[in-house]
TrEMBL record:
SMART domains: CBM_2. Keywords: Hydrolase. The keyword Translocase does not apply. It comes from the Eukaryota. SUPFAM superfamilies: PLC-like phosphodiesterases (SSF51695), Starch-binding domain-like (SSF49452). It comes from Drosophila albomicans (Fruit fly). This is Glycerophosphocholine phosphodiesterase GPCPD1 isoform X3.
Amino acid sequence: MDIGDTDTIMCDKCAAYADAASITADDNYATGNELLEAAPSTGCKPTLRQFNVRLQTALAAEEQLALTGDVKALGEWQLSRCVPLDRLDELSWQTTVRLQSCRQIEYRYFVYVEDAAGNKQIRRWETHFKPRLLLPCPEQQCNSPVDAFGIANPLENTQSQVHRGWLNHEAIVQLKFNGEKMFQVHDIETFDPQHVQLKIVPVEQSSGLHVEYSKQLYGRSQLQLQPQFGVPYTKGDIVIFHITLPLEQMMLQHFRLECYSLDHQLLGSATLNAAQLTGSEGLLQLHIKSAQRPDETLARLRLPYVLVQPYQYSPLDFKTTYAHYWPRSWPNLDVGHRGNGKSYIAEAPQERENTIASFLSAHAHHADMVELDVHLTADGIPVIYHDFGLRTAPPGKQIEKPDQLEYVLIKDINYELLKRLRIFSVINGKVFEYPAHNAEPRTEHRIFPRLVEVLQQLPKSLGIDVEIKWPQRRQGGGSEAEQTIDKNFFADRVLHEVIRYGCGRPLIFSSFDADMCTMLRFKQNIFPVMFLTQGETKKWQPFSDLRTRNFMAAVNNAQAFELAGTAPHAEDFLGENAAQMLQQARDQGQIAVIWGDDCNSKERVQYFTQIGATATCYDRSDLYMPEAKQRAFFNSSALLAEFEGQCRI
C-alpha cells in the first residue's frame, strides 16, 4: 500500500479528506502518520493548511500543478506521492492538507503531466537551493499566503527559478540536425535543403508524448513548441528535435518528418518509428518522398539520433538540486588538470597523472578542484585514465622501439587484467615504461584507480570535475576511438557511483560529447553538467558535431538543455574580445571553466582570472598556483555544509 494513500489529506484528485485518528498505520513508518506522533503535551494538533499558488503564465491543457515536501502528508519529496492542486482559474491553484500546526515544513511546487498508465512526468519544478518554508502557527490562526510559482522568497529574489525535470517513466529521443552534408538531393530545383522547414509529427497521439525543438541561436536556444509549418533550416544551422515519450510507448510510436517550403507548401516527408532506434545512439537513413508523387524520392537524409533512458538504479527526489548551484559570490577557482598535471611528457611532475597521489598533490598546493577522466572497462568498472587506450607489451618482452608496442582500448579490457598490464609512453621518440598498477607498492600512486576509490579517499574539501570520456567523430572522417559500450549504460554506471559515494562535496560533470552532457542532465537532478569544447583551435582537427566548433555554439547548446555552462579551450580566449565572450556566457547564467596548455603559467592563470573565467584548469598546481593563496576555497566547514543535501543514501 502506498503511504501517500493513507497520510495525505488533499484534493479529490489524490484522496478524500479523512480524520487523522482513522488513518491506518503502515509497517514502514510506525504509526504511518506524523500527525499521530506529536506529543499531546506540546499542544501540537493536526490543522488544515491551505496552499495557494499563482502562475506567471497558464499551463497547457494537459499539465497539472502539484506540491511535495519533507513530511509524509506531502509525499516526502517523492513524485509518486505528490499532492495535486485544484485549478481555480487560469493562473490560480489551491489545495488543503492536514498538517501539524507546530512544525516547520519544507515544500516545492512542480508542473507535471500523466501518461496513459498514470505515470507522472515532471515538466518543470522549482529549483531554489533552499525549498519553501511553511512556518508553524497557532491552531485556528494559520494564514494562507499566495505563493508565486518559481519565486520562493520575493523579498530576497524576484527572479523565477524553474527548470525542467528529470526522467522517471519516460525517455527522450533527440533527432539532430547538427552536421554538414546531411542531405543527398536528387534534384535541387525540386527540393533545396538550403531553404526548407522541418517538422516532426507523431503519427499516434498519446498522453505524455511531447515534441519540442531547439534552434541554437544566442539567447534563443531554449526548447519550445514547433511552428505550424516547421522550423526554418539551412546548412550550418543547429536544430535539435527533442521528443519526450512514455517508456511503454517506445516500440509502438511512429513519426513523420515533414519538409515544407518557405511559403509553407508541403514538399515531402519521411517516416520513422521508435523501433529503428537500435541503441542509445545511431544514424537513421531516411528517404524523403515527394508529397505530390509519393513514389519519387526527393532526397536521402542521414539523421543522427540519441536516446536518453531514465537512470536505472535508485529513484531521485525533489529534496534539492545542485544542477545550477554556483554562486556568483564564489571567486575564480583553481582546478588541477588530471591532478597535478600531465605526466607522460618531458619534465613531468613526480606523481603520475590521474592517480590519487596526483590529486592529493594538487590539494596540498591549494587547488580548489581537480579534473579527472573516467572510462568504463569491459566489465563495467569506472576507472580513471586520460587516453582511450594504452601502449603495452607482453610480460618479459624487451621493448626498444615504439613499433614494438601494442595499443589496446580500455573498453575492451576487464579491470583485473588492466591492473596487470605493462604501461609505456613514447616521449620525443623514446620509449619509457612505468609501473603497472599491481607492480606499484604505493597504493595512492597506482595507475587506473577506480572512481569509487577516488571518491572515498579524496577529502571532501577538494572539489571534483568528473570528465566522461566518449570518442568524437572528426570533421574529416573517422573517430578518436572505437566505442562499443552502450552510452546509457556507461552514464548510469558512473552516476551510480557518484550519487552513492561522491555526495557532500563540490562535484561537476563534463564531457566533450554533447549527447553525454544531455544524458547526464536529464538522468539526474543533483549535480551540474558542463559541455567541454575544443573550440576554434589550430592544435587538433575539428569534430563533426557543429556544437563543438566554437564557444558560442557551446553556450547555445548549454542554454538549450539547461546545462550549468561550458568548459571551453583557452585558445578561444587569447584575443581582444575574450572578456566580452565570457560576459555573454554569464549573461545566460552560465559558468565557463577554461582549460588547456595555454593556461600553464602564473601569468596566464592571472590573465584568465582577470577576464572573468569561472575557473581555470591547468597543470602543475605546485608551480603556477597564485602565490598569495593560503588555502583552497572549499576548505571551509560552512561551505561544505551546503553540500550535505546532495546525499540521498
